[in-house]
Design brief:
heterodimer; A: 124 residues; Glutaredoxin; 4 helices; B: 219 residues; alpha+beta; 8 helices; globular
Chain lengths: 124, 219
């Protein structure tokens, strides 16, 4: 390997900084699908699929999807938690693909909590 | 799920299936108490590994129809379990979690395998990770179809973008491999929902799509 120059190091630094900034890019909405055994049996994978489908269709880059284990409310699975920056997290219950699409379009994109499926508001 | 007390008063002769129907009627929900695809079991076991701190997952589906055998292997590099806990992990009334007292995932998989003349084994070592293997008679009437493996992979990749995942599907000697590190290398940290990454990934999965529906039980 050729000897590294200061310029090479600078390039690496810039490249890494760019990638890191992207990774920690400003996320203002976090959507968590709970996929424990209970959630999976109740259809959490379809909910995740619908969420992915919606996310590929939006221009917004500040929305993050993630999965997490069982929330401890197995009877109301699939559960989805929506956290919008500056607002209390909302837990939605008994979700399916259609409800997920509705929550994404109305709550995530337009800020209107879908109280019909919301089970809890978690105080911060 | 917590059963209403009335179910505990039902005559003991009631089969599990009847009890399940009764619960479903009462809750107005469909029969959702089994995992109807092997791909859902895989998602479940993989999720266990990630909960155990794994950042590397290896999923192998090995189908050998000549030997009438289907083997699932899910390996993780999470924190693993000591032997006594691994031994009890498939017991539905054993769990290390504190949110509730039952843990059903592995016991469901073990039952599914046993129903199909197979078995499930767990090997694990503290600090090294775990490996869950489940075997099935390929043509067994009760064997669930492999199901939507693409959806399982998408859920894992979307839900846990930092986990390196390989999926290896071997069918009678034909091998199909997906390695998420290849996607990382190509697109850096762009999320799976980025349209360009999404299209690339869908194309990557395409060759395996025809494969998942070929078994007699796969419908």
């Amino acid at each position: 390997m050729a000897k590294m120059t200061i310029d090479d190091l600078k390039k690496i630094k810039e490249k890494t900084a760019g990638e890191t900034a992207l990774r920690h890019g400003v996320a203002t909405v976090k959507i968590t699908v709970h996929i424990g055994t209970c959630g999976i049996a109740a259809g959490a994978r379809d909910v995740m699929g619908a969420l992915m489908d919606e996310m590929t269709q939006t221009e917004r880059t500040d929305i993050r999807a993630m999965a997490s284990p069982c929330l401890g409310m197995c009877g109301s699975e699939p559960n989805v938690t929506v956290e919008v920056e500056g607002a209390e997290p909302i837990v939605y219950q008994q979700m399916d693909a259609d409800k997920m699409r509705q929550v994404f379009r109305r709550h995530v994109l337009e800020g209107e909590v879908q109280t019909d499926f919301a089970v809890a508001r978690i105080p911060e | 799920m917590i059963l209403p007390a009335v179910f505990l008063l039902q005559p003991a002769s009631h089969s599990l299936a009847e009890l399940r129907r009764a619960i479903n009627n009462r809750t107005g929900r469909k029969d959702r108490h089994t995992l109807k695809e092997l791909a859902l079991h895989i998602l479940d076991v993989a999720e266990n590994g990630i909960s155990a701190g794994a950042d590397r997952l290896k999923i192998i589906v090995d189908e050998n129809r000549a030997a009438n055998r289907l083997v699932l292997t899910i390996e993780d590099n999470g924190h693993g379990m000591p032997a006594d806990i691994a031994f009890r992990a498939a017991d539905p009334f054993f769990t290390t979690r504190t949110t509730r007292r039952v843990g059903l995932g592995l016991s469901l998989l073990e039952n599914a395998a046993r129903r199909c003349n197979g078995e499930m084994t767990i090997s694990s070592e503290t600090g090294r990770g775990s490996r869950v293997t489940a075997t099935f008679a390929h043509d067994h009437i009760d064997r669930a179809p492999l199901g939507d493996m693409a959806a399982t992979l998408i859920a894992l990749i979307a839900g846990y973008p930092d986990v390196a995942l390989t999926f290896n599907h071997n069918i009678d000697g034909h091998e199909f491999i997906v390695d998420t590190m290849a996607i990382k290398k190509r697109f850096g940290n762009r999320p799976i929902t980025d349209p360009e990454v999404w299209t690339y990934f869908m194309a990557l999965l395409e060759p395996d799509k025809g494969n998942v529906n070929h078994g007699e039980n796969d419908h």
